[in-house]
Specification:
With about 400 residues, this protein is of the alpha+beta class. The protein contains eight helices and 15 strands. It has a 15-stranded mixed β-sheet that branches.
Length: about 400
């Protein structure tokens, strides 16, 4: 009798275990379709946008899932016309094991082949329309954990102006970006615990971006540098023809910048360099007289500020101020242009002179030669006002 009951309990236990196993398998098979259904419903109901996901794959063992072929389009609320905005071949969302081993539960995102398109609004031609989509809110629906690591592989950022003549279509390709420790999950003692490193191709040129930052600080706190080398300006001719009405026959462009910020204050510089600039050439013989005249003026300005030894146009524009009141020292820009033209060429490289420690240094700007000349009246006015105030007292 006892043996029968024992045997019956064993059979019941085996059936329960088999039932649980079957339920797990069924849930595992059905769950991706359930998640896909709710994800697509969320993407389809976004205000001003429409999105769709082709497929979702789960990887339960490593705590991850993959989104296959996602796209999000801007949707005109009046005409319902859709314009591509964001797409990615694959998005891998998972638990970041490095953070987990440090005792923090955080997530990581890996985008394979991401694409982002910015367009210029025909109704408001003076400014590029700033996108209102908050990707954090969109991602929160798919990744409930705080993102501590994000990587973009083989990305593309594109800008289009459908209303210009000719139409402008420029892009940054082969983008690779790696952002780490965004939630300070494994380096809590550092002042700037997070890091971002990015590289990209820009029309035969190379872009490099490096930054250290503290994303959790109350005020923006960061130290970044970027450089763009050897971009072919001829390949941007549609852009120049649409916005400057000129043709570029030859020229290479570089840009170097450093910026640091803390306690709502910032300091930095931007240094553009143009080499072998040729705006007017034999290729422009078919242009009308006014077009040739404008190109001659543009080309002449470049020749005026060109360093004869290095055959380059360059200047260095320092800037410093508060994040709620940014300013640029125009006199320093003019002085640097003339120094480059007649004295020496600015070296095409980052100067490594800006850091988080230099933000509050040299708050009183030194006057340049031209600033001393042209600001005498302003100084006199300020002195006269002080005298008047003393008399009133």
């Amino acid at each position: 009798m006892t043996d029968t009951r024992t045997h019956s309990k064993k059979r019941r236990t085996v059936k329960i275990l088999i039932g649980i196993l079957v339920a797990i398998v069924v849930i595992r098979l059905i769950l991706p379709y359930v998640i896909l259904h709710f994800a697509n419903r969320s993407l389809a109901n976004m205000n001003g946008y429409y999105g769709h996901i082709n497929d979702i794959d789960l990887a339960i063992i490593r705590g991850a899932y993959k989104i296959d072929s996602i796209y999000i389009n801007k949707k005109d609320t009046v005409t319902s016309k859709q314009t591509p905005f964001f797409a990615s071949k694959v998005i891998d969302l998972s638990i970041e094991w490095k953070a987990l081993l440090k005792g923090s539960i955080a997530g990581e995102l890996v985008f394979q082949g991401p694409f982002l398109l910015f367009t210029k609004d025909i109704v408001e031609p003076k400014e590029v329309v700033k996108d209102s989509a908050d990707f954090r809110k969109v991602l929160d629906k798919f990744m409930p954990l705080n993102i501590n690591r994000c990587e973009l592989r083989d990305g593309k950022i594109q800008y289009k102006d459908f209303g210009s003549t000719p139409k402008v279509d420029i892009a940054m390709t082969n983008l690779h970006l790696l952002a780490q420790n965004l939630r300070n999950s494994y380096d809590s003692t550092a002042v700037l615990p997070a890091s971002i490193h990015a590289t990209a191709d820009v029309y035969e040129g190379k872009l490099r971006f490096d930054a250290k930052l503290n994303p959790l600080a109350d005020a923006p706190t960061f130290d970044m540098s970027a450089e763009l080398n050897n971009t072919n300006l001829v390949k941007l001719n549609d852009f120049f023809q649409a916005y400057a009405k000129v043709d570029v026959n030859d020229g290479r462009f570089g840009l170097y910048t450093e910026v640091a910020a803390k306690d709502m204050e910032f300091k930095g510089y931007v240094k553009p360099v143009i080499k072998n600039l040729d705006v007017l050439g034999k290729e422009d013989r078919k242009d009308n007289l006014l077009q040739k005249l404008w190109e001659a003026v543009a080309g002449g300005a470049g020749k005026l500020f060109e360093n004869k030894n290095n055959d380059q146009v360059a200047t260095k524009v320092p800037f410093q101020g508060r994040l709620d009141d940014p300013r640029t020292n125009i006199w320093a820009a003019i002085t640097n242009i003339l120094q480059n033209a007649f004295i020496h060429a600015i070296q095409p490289s980052i100067d490594n002179e800006i850091s988080i420690a230099s933000v509050k240094e040299d708050k009183k700007e030194k006057k340049t030669f031209f600033q001393k000349i042209f600001s005498k009246d302003d100084d006199k006015d300020r002195k006269d006002k002080k005298k008047d105030q003393k008399k009133d007292k």
